[in-house]
Amino acid sequence: MLILLAFIIVFHITSAALLFISTIDNAWWVGDNFSTDVWRMCATNISICRAITDEFNEYQSIQAVQAAMILSTILCCVAFLVFILQLFRLKQGERFVLTSIIQLLSCLCVMIAASIYTDRHEELHQSHGYGMEVSKGQYGYSFVLAWIAFAFTLISGVMYLVLRKRK
Question: pTM of this prediction?
Answer without folding.
Answer: 0.88
